[in-house]
Design goal:
With 122 residues, the chain is of the alpha+beta class. Helix content is 40%, strand content 27%. The chain has a single domain, classed as Translation Initiation Factor IF3 (2-Layer Sandwich). Helix 3 packs across helix 5.
């Protein structure tokens, strides 16, 4: 009985790698070329410079190494995800950017990950 339970759990663990990340990862295909180009133009500004801009709310971005052959998760990739989310809100800048490195997690289905947050501005 215990062997069957262990086998099912191990099989489910390996199968979960085939599903993909459990965090939203934006791509050019899902956001469109216009949003991706706009994201490339978004700058990170100081809190002082942000005081003269309109806040559009917090945006979050993730970078996830889901499969062994995926590129490593990086803060840069998660920051670009933040900029994509900001561009979808018609932002021109972000501020208060912070990133945290994650470890292997079944909750995110990532071998390694980064989560970045910022305040979108216009």
């Amino acid at each position: 009985m215990n062997f069957k339970l262990v086998a099912v759990v191990v099989f489910a663990f390996f199968l979960s790698g085939c599903v993909g990340a459990f965090v939203p990862i934006k791509t050019v295909e899902t956001t469109g070329l216009y949003v991706a180009e706009a994201a490339g133009k978004i700058s990170v500004v100081s809190v002082e410079a942000a005081a003269n801009m309109q806040a559009l709310g917090e945006v979050v971005g993730y970078s996830c190494k889901n499969k062994l052959w995926d590129a490593d998760a990086t803060a840069e990739a998660a920051t670009f995800q933040v900029k994509l989310s900001a561009a979808q809100r018609s932002a021109t800048a972000i501020t208060n950017l912070s990133c945290n490195k994650g470890a292997t997690s079944l909750a995110t289905n990532c071998w390694s990950s980064f989560t970045c947050k910022a305040l979108a501005l216009r």
